[in-house]
Design brief:
alpha+beta, three-stranded antiparallel beta sheet
């Protein structure tokens, strides 16, 4: 006997929010899913959904997601999290300069960014630490105390240590020529 879902007079749980273009299947964790718009339905009907006969009504407007590998289906709400903004040439050039393992010249980064945006749709992940630090203002400069003025009587700002020779003893020593000892 086929399993049945909730009866039409039972309340329907709210749909989860739209998970975005890059989402994983809940069954097989495959990272690609297709999306189909489904209009609201209020007539009770029994349909097969993921291999199970279910009452699927009433249902609000929704997005039906389907895994591209195992064909598992799930519904998501239309009101989604705001889409991340598309990347500009400046954003992509900034990312190229800060993510490369070697220094990238600003003109080379801008040229590469323009070429990439010609062939790709790129979105900025605003929650990434690179963008958070890029949009935070630098800390205010702490005023430094004024440097002391050099003494005009000195000939050098850097002190010079003179190695003074010890005074030589008066009179002849044993190491000088003319000593009488043999």
């Amino acid at each position: 006997m086929p399993q049945t879902g909730p009866l039409p007079d039972q309340p329907v749980a709210p749909l989860p929010p739209y998970s975005g273009d890059l989402t994983e299947c809940a069954k097989c964790a495959y990272p690609e899913a297709s999306t189909t718009y489904r209009a609201a339905s209020c007539n009770p009907s029994r349909v097969e959904f993921n291999g199970v006969m279910q009452f699927r009504n009433p249902l609000p407007e929704r997005l039906e997601r389907s895994c591209n590998r195992c064909e598992y289906k799930w519904d998501e709400a239309l009101d989604s999290v705001p889409a991340e903004p598309p990347a500009t040439v400046e954003d992509l050039a900034y990312a190229l300069q800060h993510c490369a393992p070697y220094p990238v010249h600003p003109q080379a980064a801008e040229h590469t960014a323009r070429r990439l945006l010609d062939v790709f749709h790129v979105q900025v992940r605003l929650g990434h630490p690179m963008w958070i630090s890029a949009h935070t203002p630098p800390p205010p400069l702490v005023p430094q105390p004024p440097e002391p003025q050099p003494d005009p009587g000195l000939t050098s700002v850097v002190p010079i240590v003179l190695n003074e020779q010890p005074a030589t003893p008066a009179g002849p020593t044993a190491f000088e020529s003319g000593s009488t000892e043999s």
